[in-house]
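Quick one: structure for this chain?
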Amino acid sequence: MSTDTVQFVAAAVSDCGCKRPSNEDAFGYSVEHGVYVVCDGMGGAAAGEIASSLAIEEMMRCLAGDARDKTAPLEELVGQAIHAANESIHSRAQSNVRISGMGTTLVGLAAEGKRVLVFNVGDSRCYRLRSLRLEQISQDHSLVQEQVRMGRMTHAEALRSPLRSVITRALGTQKSVTPDLFELVAEPGDLFLLCSDGLTGELTDALIGSMLAVDLPLNDLCARLVKAAKEAGGHDNITCLLVRAGS
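Got it. Here's what it folds into:
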């Protein structure tokens, strides 16, 4: 067995939830190219759906399309893809007053051998389950989580805050955006979860971790997470994308 690479498999489920008439979440992935992305759109009318769809389209074009530069460093490719996605959404919003101000969160994972680059803008999250321990890799760009990080609010207070859905960074709302990047080394058995806040707003990290620790196919795990979030209220759209590293 090679020590320089791992094999990945993936599955995803997206659902409107119980309260929303449409689904403004979107996802895309290519196991072949090692690219996995989840977006949660926002804006009036159909703007959120447009923003998230544009983001996925651009990310996949840049990172999994024929035009991808196979010689460029992974960080550079991811940065170019996020810039293209942001520009696409912002330009479209500027051209139509009905969708002005639309935007989307973004969380993604790009794999190159055992090397994994996690990137995010907004409060959609990436978790890693390793040896039955769930760890949040990304950091929320939200008002309450920034207060928590500065020590001005406890985690429990953040969960109860009426401002918990206010995000401080998004794709498309400004001419430029700065993502967070996290570099990891994948090990066989690692399970990565990319999800919108429709999941994490309903289920605790402890419950998510216990549900992911069950030995089931990834499609079934995704479906179980979505079902649990809907049973807990399903107040928002719910998207789960699971990526498992194998030997």
